[in-house]
Description:
This protein has helices spanning 32-41, 59-62, 65-71, 80-83, 147-150, 164-169, 174-181, 189-199, 219-230, and strands at residues 2-7, 14-19, 22-26, 49-54, 75-78, 94-95, 101-104, 107-113, 122-127, 132-136, 155-159, 206-210, 233-234, 241-244, 254-258, 265-267. It has 268 residues and is an alpha/beta fold. The protein has one domain: 4-Layer Sandwich (Metallo-beta-lactamase, Chain A). The strands form 2 sheets. A 9-stranded mixed sheet has the order 7-8-9-10-11-12-15-14-13, covered by helices on one side. The radius of gyration is 17 Å and the shape is globular. The termini are close together. The site of one zinc ion (ZN) has 4 residues, from loops.
Amino acid sequence: MRLHILASGSRGNASIVEGPDGLVLIDDGISRKCLRERSAELGVSCDDIACLVVTHEHSDHVKGLDVWCRHWKGRIVSAPGTARQRCLCERDVEEVRGGQSFEACGMRITAFSTSHDVADPLGLVFETATDRLAFVTDTGVFPEEALALVRGARVIALESNHDPAMLAQGEYPAFLKARVGGELGHLSNVQAAEVARRVVTGSTEALVAMHISQRNNLPSLAVRALAEAVGATAANTTFTRAVRAAERPGGAVLEVLAASQEMPMTVG
Ligand SMILES: [Zn+2]
Ligand SMILES: [Zn+2]
């Protein structure tokens, strides 16, 4: 499996998981044009997207959906509470609840409930017989029930939204600071680092800081926090990439990276 992150951040989110038998799109918060251009840039074709999973109904995750669904006829999957939201297109939505799994594109996809100020938000774990990839963004706390599922995944895409000091000192009004930093908001660098300590193992090859705030964070701060948590050291002068050598001969080298709003990237 490979993870193609087309866009990550509060201005729009879309990622593609490339499975053995096709592509699964996670969220559609960018324009159709942008989705097509960025996937082509990463060497995958939108025509191979067989399934779209919507994690929740915030506009930065669904605003491309309406136009996209006029041209595309694949499966749409979301939690029941998300499926009831009017912002989803007019199409039938297959429902998956936290704790349930479904099959798509040669992968088993397990959903788990997250903690966010929407009806029914989900995190996701993608599995084949030999590989596991975890994806969790837009959650104020990391769900304990998901720890065992996420732990040791080869690729872990984990929200690292804000630096607590930048959020506290920044220009957001008090209510927004409380929302972002609260239990129904977004994971901070400090929280993500705590999670990373618990879920990254010698099997993990990539840990990606997701949904990085452009106002209340810097890619280098997110990567630094995660890198320190897992014992990785800077691999470039800007500290936007860090690496940790394999713990055992033949083991995995761990790379810590920052996802971007503007620059698409492939992981894994
Ligand atoms: Zn979001
Ligand atoms: Zn959200």
